[in-house]
């Protein structure tokens, strides 16, 4: 999907800027005050805690690229997911989730939904018909994740959004893996887009945050529940996020390029039995990914050939650190079985196609070429030369 009209990097650097009227500084000022004058505020609608000046910037930024009209930011990605879902689900309602789902979202459903009297179904597969087959009379929400964590399955966003509209349901999409740079689900017809900003938006493995983008009416509902539950993002994190987002376009494009190179390399490697990356022609949904994504992203997964120990392999890597999270500027590797999908039963992992040997690779912005010998010292873990 080409979207040439978006001046991506200009928006990344400038959208949502807060003018420093006092000192004319180059960047938005950071206001750490937790308390502001109340005279002019409609207190019933906007409790003081939610009108801090710093908080107004991040919304402006993401809103623009996603062309959603509004944004709610949360302390962490899971707060964005749970608050968005719970804002629209009541006792007696039903929700359809796609089978391939981030482990944390899966746990939220399995561990919490019963006590609220909310029922759910998981699709058989990623096809639009699979979503439609799960719809019941009391279904309220269709929830998608594409590309999915960790196996990079691709869901036809336009088709599933169309099904949701046809049945009068709300469509939600976890856009974390793609980032707003590579995929704009609002343009593809999705009602509510969710990001774990802990990942690409933050991009430096040092921020926990989440974001939800959608229409005024939808975000108002999420905002009201967020106000009651209290998962709002701190001003300081908003300020850090603003700094991170300035380089989002540059980072993600470099990660797209590196991931494609790495996927091609691994695909030919004799010790690798499978590579999952939507930018490979061998990916079953390559054509669909090309159609709905602007870039294929920095995440890929692979399976070592039988007999090789994935855990040992990860420990032996020198520069690439084993990591629980993803999407930083540094390349990291993860075992979904031990991290993102650790709390799932072996059976549930199997259903999702995740094996004990699946390795999930978060590709950073490093160079393909290794630094010269004299730079070796101090690089890589424990100062050992890199491989
Ligand atoms: C990490 C992740 C989340 C949760 O984000 P947190 O900020 O860690 O709560 C949600 N969805 C996907 C796809 C993720 O990778």
Can you describe what's shown?
The structure is a single chain. This protein has 387 residues and is an alpha/beta fold. β4, α6 (157-166) and β5 form a beta-alpha-beta unit. It has helices at 8-14, 57-66, 77-88, 103-112, 128-134, 157-166, 179-182, 216-229, 235-246, 248-268, 286-292, 310-316, 346-352; strands at residues 70-74, 94-97, 119-122, 139-145, 170-174, 192-196, 210-214, 272-276, 299-304, 321-322, 332-334, 358-362. The structure holds pyridoxal-5'-phosphate. Pyridoxal-5'-phosphate binds at residues 76-78, 102, 104, 145, 149, 174, 176-177, 196, 198-199, 208, 210. Pyridoxal-5'-phosphate (PLP) binds next to α3.
Summarize the topology.
Layout (H helix, E strand, L loop, with lengths): L7 H7 L42 H10 L3 E5 L2 H12 L5 E4 L5 H10 L6 E4 L5 H7 L4 E7 L11 H10 L3 E5 L4 H4 L9 E5 L13 E5 L1 H14 L5 H12 L1 H21 L3 E5 L9 H7 L6 E6 L5 H7 L4 E2 L9 E3 L11 H7 L5 E5 L25
Parallel strand pairs: 2-3, 2-4, 4-5, 5-6, 10-11
Antiparallel strand pairs: 1-7, 6-7, 8-9, 9-12, 11-12
Helix pairs in contact: 1-9, 3-8, 5-6
Bound molecules: pyridoxal-5'-phosphate
Task: Please trace the helix and strand order, writing H or E for each element.
Answer: HHEHEHEHEHEHEEHHHEHEHEEHE
Helical content (DSSP H or I, runs of 4+):
25-40%
Mean pLDDT: 87
Number of helices: 13
Ranges with pLDDT <50 over ≥5 residues? none
The tally of beta strands, per DSSP, is 12
Main beta sheet, described?
7 strands, mixed
* Approximate shape: globular
Strands of the widest sheet, in order across it, are 1-7-6-5-4-2-3
Radius of gyration from the CA trace? 21 Å
Question: What share of residues are in beta strands?
Answer: 5-15%
C-alpha termini separation:
37 Å
Structural class: alpha/beta
């Amino acid at each position: 999907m080409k979207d040439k009209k978006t001046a991506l990097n200009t928006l990344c650097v400038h959208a949502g800027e807060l003018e420093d009227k006092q000192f004319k500084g180059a960047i938005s000022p950071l206001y750490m005050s937790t308390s502001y004058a109340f005279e002019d505020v409609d207190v019933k609608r906007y409790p003081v805690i939610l009108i801090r000046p710093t908080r107004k910037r991040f919304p402006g930024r993401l809103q623009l690229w996603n062309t959603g009209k509004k944004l709610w930011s949360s302390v962490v990605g899971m707060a964005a997911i749970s608050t968005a879902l719970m804002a629209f689900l009541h006792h007696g309602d039903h929700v359809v989730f796609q089978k391939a789902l981030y482990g944390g979202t899966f746990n939220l459903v399995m561990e919490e939904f019963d006590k609220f009297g909310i029922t759910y179904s998981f699709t058989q597969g990623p096809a639009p018909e699979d979503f439609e087959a799960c719809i019941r009379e009391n279904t309220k929400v269709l929830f998608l994740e594409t590309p999915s964590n960790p196996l990079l399955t691709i869901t036809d966003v336009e088709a599933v959004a169309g099904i949701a509209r046809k049945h009068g349901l709300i469509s939600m999409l976890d856009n974390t893996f793609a980032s707003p740079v590579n995929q704009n689900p609002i343009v593809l017809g999705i009602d509510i887009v969710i990001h774990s900003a802990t990942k690409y938006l933050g991009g430096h493995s040092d921020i926990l945050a989440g974001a939800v983008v959608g229409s005024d009416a939808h975000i108002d509902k999420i905002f009201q529940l967020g106000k009651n539950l209290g998962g709002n993002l701190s001003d300081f994190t908003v300020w850090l996020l603003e700094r991170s987002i300035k380089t989002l376009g540059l980072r993600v494009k470099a990660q797209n390029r590196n991931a494609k190179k790495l996927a091609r390399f691994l695909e030919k490697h004799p010790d690798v039995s499978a590579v999952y990356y939507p930018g490979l022609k061998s990916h079953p949904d390559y054509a669909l990914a090309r159609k709905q994504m602007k870039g294929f992203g920095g995440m890929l997964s692979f399976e070592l050939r039988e007999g090789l120990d994935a855990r040992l392999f990860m420990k032996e890597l020198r520069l690439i650190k084993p990591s629980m999270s993803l999407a930083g500027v540094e390349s990291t590797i993860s075992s979904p079985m031990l991290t993102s999908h650790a709390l799932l039963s072996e059976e549930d992992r199997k259903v999702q196609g995740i094996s004990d040997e699946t390795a999930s690779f978060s590709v950073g912005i490093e160079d393909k070429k290794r630094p010269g010998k004299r730079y070796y010292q101090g690089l890589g873990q424990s100062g050992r030369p890199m491989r």
